[in-house]
Specification:
single chain; 197 residues; 0% strand
Amino acid sequence: MRSRRADYSESTKQALVDSAIDLFTRNGYAATSLDAIVKRSRVTKGALYHHFSGKQALFEAAFNQVEQKAMERLTAAVHGDGEPWDRAMDGVQEYIRVCLESSYQRLVIREAPVVMGIERWREAEEQFSFGIVKHVVELLIDAGEIGDVPVEVTARMMFASLAAGAMIIADAGDPKKASADVFTALIHMIEGIRRKG
């Protein structure tokens, strides 16, 4: 049984992460102060430093939470009911929906490469989402939907295409239109390696 103190500590940490997500999404990393985060969280700066070494560590926790929620949605889509091809298409559609969310756009696509550094960001992205892409490629090969392509190379190329699509949506003046264009392009690319007949 967890102690009341442990529960309080966990709720304090969660309040800080939730506040960070909200403020980083609205104002960006550079324009968000730790003072603003602790004020919104209704905790002390000491409580913040008890859980996080500083602003970047708090950003990484916020990034991880946004990514984790996105990956839960994608996993549910590709592991749902239906034929493997339909589940793969559901996964692409869900990914497009995730890319339209302001917190995902701001924290994962725009801010993270700058705040975390490009190499660390790529590692984190791979840790979260590459496994799902690879699983989908294996699923489609096993179902005979696509030919016997090299799994690792195909998954990496699809992963890069999805990342490029996310960037296009995040940078677009009209993200909804961009997301429709990205979805169309991705589906045509995937259809291109589908077995005919």
